[in-house]
Each structure stands twice: as C-alpha cells, then as structure tokens.
What does this fold into?
Amino acid sequence: MNKNSNTYVVLFAASVCVVLAAGLAATFHGLKTRIDSNKLFDKQRNVLIACGLYDPTAGEKPRADLEAMFTKVQPKVLEFFKSEVEEEYRERGELRKRKVNKITRAEDSGIKLEDLEKERRKNPDRILGEVYVAEDGGKKIYCIPISGYGLWSWLYGFLALEEDRNTVRGITFYKHGETPGLGGEVDKAWWQNNWKGKKIHDSSGKLVSITVLKGQGNEFAPDGHKVDGISGATITSNGVTKFVKADLKKYEVYFKGVN
Amino acid sequence: MTATVDTLVEAKPKPSFFGKKEKRAVLDPLWDDNPISLQVLGICSALAVTIKVEQTLFMCGAVIFVLCMSNVLISLMRDLIPNNIRIIVMLTVISSVVTIVSLILQAYAFDISKALSVFVGLIVTNCIVMGRAEAFAMANRPWRSFLDGLGNALGYTWILIAVAVFRELLGDGKVLGARIIPESWYMDQGGWYVNNGLMVLAPGAFILLGVIIWIQRAISGYSEDN
It folds into this structure.
C-alpha cells in the first residue's frame, strides 16, 4: 500500500491512537488505587497542616504517623438548606427590599466522608460540605474546604478556624494549576503564614472575610482582615479572596449553630 | 527544533552491537554535542527544576525514560510512519510516554510529582525529545536510537545536576537535603554567612548555566564561528 495515500495515513493515525490509548488506559487502571490513596492522604495531610497540628517546615513526619494523627480528627458531612429571606439593599439611594435564596440552615447529613463524592454525583442538587473538627490542647479547631477559580485553574484547599470561629488558624492549598513561582506560591508556607491570626468577622460580628491585597509585609498587621498578596499573582489573589468569602458565607450558619 | 544535529545514516546493513557509531551515539551528547550547553535546548526545565537536587534527579530520571522510550518506539515505527504526519505521530508517542511517567510518579513519588508540578507534563515540549526523534530515531535502528536517547538524556542530566548542586548549596546551604554549610556560620546564629537568595530564583540558574557553558566551551575550544 502506498505509504502516502490518504487511506494509509488515516488508518495509520487511527491505529496509533488506539494502541497508545489502550496503553495509557491500562497504565492508569493499574495505578489508580495507589494514586487515589496518595491523593486522599495528601488531603488529610493538608487538613493537619491547616489545623496547625503538623508543620512540615519544622520537620517531615512519616506517613503512618500522620495517618494516625488524622484518626483523631472528626470529619462530618453537612447538608445546607436554602430558604427565601428578605434582604434590604440600596438602589439609587433608596432602601429597598427583595427576596433572595440564602443558606439558612445546616445539618449533619449523616453521610460518611468517603461516600461524599458518590452522593454528590448521585444528587447534585443537595448542597453538601465537609467540616473537620480537630482538637489541640482541649480547644476545638474547625477546618473547612475552600475551592474556587484563580487564574488558570480551580484551586483546592483548607481553611482552619480557632475555637472562636473567628480567628484564622491556618490555610493550605493542595491542588491547583497556577503558575509556579507566581500564583503557585499559594501552596507555600511563607504566604500561608500571613493568614494566621486574621479575623473573619468585624467588631460588630458581621462576616467580612479576608481580602488578599497588594501591600507591604507588615502594613496589614494591625488590620485583621487583610493579607499581603503575591507579586505577579493579582488574579490568583483576587480569586482566593472571592472564594474564601463565598465558602465562609456558606459555612456561617453552621459556625453560628456550634456551641 | 532549529537544532543542527548530525544524523548518523547507516552505511552497512550489519551493525555491530557496540561499535564506533554506537559509542558516538552515547558519548557525543555528553560533551561535544551536549543538548544543553551546545545545542542550547531544554533550557526551560533546566531553570525550573534545579532548585533542589532531589527534584532534579527525579526530573532527569523522567527525561531519561521518556527519551529512550520515545526514541525506541519511533525507531520501531520509522518505516511505517507516513512522512506527512510524522511530527504528529511523534508528538502522540512522546505525550503518551510522558503521561505514563507522570502517572508512575503520582503513584510512587507523590510529593515529588507535586513539587515538579507542570514540568513533568512539559517534557512533551522539551525540544531535546522531539529533536532526537526527528533527527535520529526516524533514520536509525532501535538499539542505536536507544543509545542516542540515553546519551542525550545523560548529557542533559549531568548539566542539570551540576546546576542543582550549586543552587541548593549556595541558595540553601544543603545538598540533597543534607546540611553542608554549618548552622553556626549563619548571620542569625551569630556567624557571618548569608544564603544567596538569587540562587533559589530562575536568574541564579541562568547565571550558573552560563558559567557552565563558558567553562565547557573554554575546555573544548568550541566557537560559534566554525
């Protein structure tokens, strides 16, 4: 057969694709359980880091130790319910009222953490979310997942709050596709440490969340609601600001109900 | 892919197992025809993954595997590949091999695969891999192509490791995570020494790479003119 005929080219290209795709599928299938268990452990490790229970910069710990530590953390899957509420807003100086759908109730759903993804796929309409409750020196720590869009990618991480559910204890990111060296620095300790001790509520108790801004190192130290951003990563920083606020809003009803 | 690389065209049908040409295929890229210092290919990853020696070793291992595998696979298929779609076929083969490497890293060295982030995937676009497939594997037998891939990957490896050793030593005071510069020398411990922060950044790698190319060309007497 003529090697440059169209039929040959098409047949050759198709068979190369089929053979390579089969090879890739087989490799993926063979390694899937290992990769999944690595990913799960990575998440658990990041919960421990966000909660301030493990600091890899002070010395790495073996996987078995961390897994043992994680067994003391209590994960809970919450279900959030929306209902219509009246909200006041301002339009051209006039105070008006409108009805909005807001999350008003959070309940323990009873779903196990390992079944969360399955349940989400089965019932995409249910608003679910996990919370990890840890303890350090008799005080509780609440760790919630945060995720949202940065510049190139969806970022996934955890935000841990102190027992008062107001002070940030730690933040981590375990999965993202931001530019290494710029937005990718969100997964580095030097930046995450800036979040520690910041407050998510203002003095009147209103949720203001935390804004990532351009500024000099300690300029924001007295202001508890701002974090110094990363140079060259404005869009990632704005993304983080946005989704941290959205996630905190979602969990606010739960935090209010905890005693 | 603008590299000028010499293709070793088979003259006789009976090649020896490790004759002169095989030797050249492995040894040339190490020094006389080094992909990084002479052909100046694959610089992007040379700057990005050389902060720590450990990461560099895994990256180089991945590149060795990808180069050898892609060269052998392309060489095996070389008589079947239609000329007008050969680049696409090569790219498909290379990306499949890279994906396999990336999956293996995720399964057996998860932390490293996270630290290398996008750079494992970017091996696909490493000009050395494509360049060798086009310039060598398309015209040579699998065994010789394997040796050529190995030689080029090793030429890439030794330069990267040299850069990484200096970057980790000067930027962090360590090599392979083991402390070389004693803690007591440091300024904050009451000593006189400060890490060179530039070495942790990409420009530090650029400077080191320039110095290595300079030294190598001074020894080998290479000049752009001839």
About this structure: The radius of gyration of chain A is 23 Å. Chain A has a mean pLDDT of 89. Chain A touches chain B through 24 residues (CB under 8 Å).
